[in-house]
Amino acid sequence: MSGRLTVHPERIALLQAMPIFGAISAATLEFLVSRALPVRVQAGDCFFHEGDSPKGMFVIEAGRVLVSRSRDGQEFLLQEFGPGDCFGEMALMDLDPRSATVRAVEDCLAIEIRPGDLHELFERDCAQFALIQMNMGREICRRLRAADDRVFALDPSKSRRLGALPTGPPTPEAKR
User: Fold this and answer.
1) Distance between CA 95 and CA 112 in Å, rounded?
2) Nearest Cα residue to 33 out of 9, 65, 62
3) Is pLDDT of 1 > 60?
4) What is the pTM of this model?
């Protein structure tokens, strides 16, 4: 990692095309990029490991990564990301340890946005900060729905059957 990023129009365009930065002004994106750090990770190396302390989210400018989790000594693929994708955004929301490992499968160049960068944005423009937080929440929900679909597709027979569910408005007895 070295110094801050130069605010190139290509970087702003990359962010504007991402759902997390949808409807965010160019001025706000320039503000974030001017504070972000460039990160280069060689193929085979990791951005971070499952259980690591969160330090920020990454936006891939070049290269590809695999997101995986480990169980019983085996690594399981969760997702693959490439240019224009981001990962690690949960670190900006919950500050919990990393839930997965992210390994570069090609040499990567990424933009790292840290919690302090967003805090500075909060102090500068609360509305733009709130919009980014809502967009991150939507992206996390989208990924959770996709994960739910994958889990259910694995073996729906292991899901507990609920039987017939009542329809219509709740009865007075159900409200008690």
Assistant:
1) 15
2) 9
3) no
4) 0.81
